[in-house]
Amino acid sequence: ELSTGAPAVDVDLPLDPDQPMAGPDRERWFFDDWHGKDHGAVLDRQTLDNIWGQIHALQTPVSRAGAQWDLVGASGMVTDNGALYSGRILDIESVVNPGTGGILVWLAAASGGLWEYDDLTQAVTPLTDGLVTQAVGTVSVDPANVNNLVIGTGEWGVRAGSGVFRSTDGGSTWAQSTESSGGIFHRIRHVTSSLVLGISNAGTHRSTDGGATWSWRTSGIHFDLSLDPTNANKAHTTFTSAGNAWTVMTTDGGITWGAPPGAVATTGLRGAISVAPSNANIVYAAFSENAPSYVLDGVYKSTDGGNSWAVSLPGAGNNYMGGQGWYNNVISVHPTDANTVYAAGTPWKRTTDGGASWLDVDSSDSNHMHVDFHSMDWMTIDVAPNQTQGLTRDVQARGTSIIQLVGHDGGWSFDNGGGYQSFLNYLPITQYTHVHSSTSDLLTLGGGSQDNGISMTTDGGSTWFYRLGGDGSDVSIDPNDSQRIWIVNGVYGGGLAFRRKFSTDQGLTWADTNVGIAGSTDWYTEIANDQVNPVYLYTNAGAFVYQSQDYAATWATFGSFTADVRNVDVGRWSGAAAGVYATLASTTTGNRVWIHDGTSWNQRDAGLPTGVEIRSVIGHPIESSTCYALVNGIGTPGNKVYRSTNLGATWTNITGDLPDVPLGGIVAHPTDPTKIYLGTEMGCFETANGGTNWQTWNTGMPTAAIVADMTYVDQLASHGHFYVIAGTYGRSMYRREISGFEPTAVAELAASEARVQLAQNTPNPHRGDTRISYSLPKAGRVKLAVYDVSGRQVATLVDEVMPAGAHEAEFRSDTLAPGAYFYRLETSGKPLSRKMIVIR
After folding, report:
1. Sequence-ordered list of residues with C-beta below 8 angstroms from that of 745, at least 6 positions apart, any chain
2. 662-672 pLDDT, tens per residue?
3. Which among 54, 485, 544, 659 is least surrounded, fewest beta carbons within 10 Å?
C-alpha cells in the first residue's frame, strides 16, 4: 500500500552463503512482527496519537536526585579500517554560522532524533529529546536565521510520522506545526524565511509563516525536493501514483504543481532530483523500478530547467540501487560544476562530464562510507585567515572552499578535498534490536543492530568496535569469562538465514557454531546462556529450541513444537534447565507458551489473554520460579504484562494503568517484588506497587526512545549495585543503577574514592595537545599508553611507580593520523581505558 509506505518484504534475496547482508526488509519485518499483524510495521498517525494520549495521562514521575539513565554508547563504532559507524542519517543541512564563521551541521537520524554539529567545538547536541518521536526524516534551516528550524518526521515504508515541528530558538524548544495531512515528510526546504515547502507521502505542502502553519496543495506520494537557486517561485519534486512516476515542478512558489509535457514519465517508483546550483537549467533525476525488483530505472537529465528530459544512465546493466530503490535513492550536483554529479543507492556512481559517462566511486575513495545512501549536502565557504578549528580549518589547509557531506546507513561522512572521512561520526544513534551485558561486570556489553551488525565494548562504553556486519540479532556473554561471546547475525544464504558464531577473544575473531541446527529462514533468532559455570546455551530456529552443553561447539534438539519459536529465554542458575521459556509464533491458546521445569516441557499459557501472540517470557534476575509474560503488539489494553511465581502454572495480570504500547523488554528489581521496569516502543516505564500504577521512567534518555530490549548487570554480591541496560532502536544503549543512586553516604563516598579512576581526555576530539587525568588510591606502578584501533601501541605516557593521588599526563598527537584511538591505564586491579578522537 504505497500511501502508507509498505513495499512487500523480499525474502528471496540473492545472498552469499558466507557473507551477511543488511537491509530494510529486516527492519520492516522486525516492526511488523512487534506491532502485530493488524497494524503492520508503519503505524498510522491516529494510533500513535492514541498511545501518546494514554502516556500523557499517567501520573507525573517522582523526581529523585541522581536517578537517571546514563548513555553507554555506541557513540561511533570503530571498524577494521578505522572508520566510525553510527546509524542511519536521512537528511543533512549545513550553513556557515554568521556569529562565528564556523560550520553548523544538522543531522536527521531515522530513529535517533535531530542532532546539531558545531564545527568550532566539534560537539554534537541532540535537539529533539523531548518530542513524541525520534523519527526525524528531514530538516530545514532558515537561510537568514540559524535559530529557525523545521523538521518533518517519519520514514516512508519504515517508520510512522508525527507531523511537522518548528523551533525558533535553535532547537531548545519545539512547537508542533498545524498540518492536516498526517503524512510522512521526505523533504522540507526553506525558500525564504517565511516561505517553506514540504513534500510527503500525502502530497505537497506550503507554509508562508516559516513552517508554523501549512496548506496542503496536492495529493500523491512525493519523494524529493530541489529548489531553483535563481528563482524563488520554482522548485522540482518527484511524484508517483498507480505504478507510474514523474518529475513535477512549481513556478508559483508551491501554490500549484504539475508535470510539464516533456517531464520524465516512467513506470518507476521512488525518485530523487537535484538542480545544479551553478546552472539552474541543468537538472538530474533518478528513479527506481517498481516491485518486485526496485532496481535502477534510470538517471535522467534536463538542460532546459526540467521541461524536457533525456536518459543519461539507463537502468539496464547499471543498477546501483541493489534492489532497495524504494528505500535509498539520492542524487546531487556539485555546487560549482554542473558536470559533476553523484548518484547513490547501495553503492554509488559519479559523472564528471555531464552524464556522458558514469563510473563507480572507487571503494578506496569511500572506505569511510557505509553502503545505502540517503542524503547529500554541499558547503561552499570563505575561510577566515585565522580559522584554526574544525572542518573550516581543513578546508583552508587544503586550499578548497567546498565540503561534501553524505548521510548513509552508517551515519555521516564528509570530503573536504582530502578524501572521505568519518572521524566526526560519533553520534549515539545505533538501532539495536537485542543487547546483552556480562551479568557480573560493567565493562563488556554488546548488541545486534539494524544495518550495523554486531558491536561490542569491553571497557564499559568508552570504546566501541564494529565486530561483524549484516543485520545483528542477539548477543550472549559468558558471565564467568567475558572473553567468551556468542552472537547471532544474518542474513545469509545457504539455508540458514541467521547464524550463530562464537568468539573466545571478545569478538576479535569468530567461528561458525551451528552444528546440529537444522536449516531455517527465521530472522532475528536468539541465543541465551543460563549464567552457571559452565554455562548451558539455548537458541531457537524454526519450530525447535536447541541446547548446547559444550560452549556451542554442538547443539542438540531440546524442544520440538508445532509452530515456529519466536523467542527463547532461560532463567538464572537453571543448571539442569529449570526455567527455559519458549514463546511460539501462534495465537492459538494452548500453543503459545512452553516452559521447561528441569524435567519436561509444559504448556503454560492458561490465564494469559486469548487470541494474541505472546512476545516473550522472561525470568526474574534472582528467583528461579518467577517469570514475566509480555503480550505482543497493540490492541490489548489492560492485558499487557503478567507475572507468575510458579513457572507459569498460574499468571497474575500486572498491567494496571500501563498504556497499550508495544513492549520491548522487562527487568524486575532483584530484591523488591513491587518494583518492575519496562522498555517499550515509546520509552521506559516503572511500577513501585507491583503493577497497579505505572509511570514514565525516561530521565536521561529521550522521551520517545524505542527500547527494543533490556538486560541487567548484577553486582549486588560484589559491590551492592544492580544495573538495568536498555537497548534502544536509534539511540544506542543506556545504563541505570536501581539499587542506589549517586554515592552520598560517607561510606559510599569513601568506597568511590578508593578506586583507580581514569578521566576522559580534554579536549576531545583534539588536535595537537590533550590532557589525561587519573587518580590512584595508593602508590603503585602505572602504565598509561595510547593505542590505535588495531591494538598497536603508538605512545607511552607513563611507565613508572606513581604516588597515591591525582595525576595528569599530556599527550601530543601531531604525528598521528586523524581517527579514533584509545588510551589504557594499567595498575593494581582491572585496567581502564577510554576512547579519544584525533582530528586535523
Report:
1. none
2. 999 999 999 99
3. 54
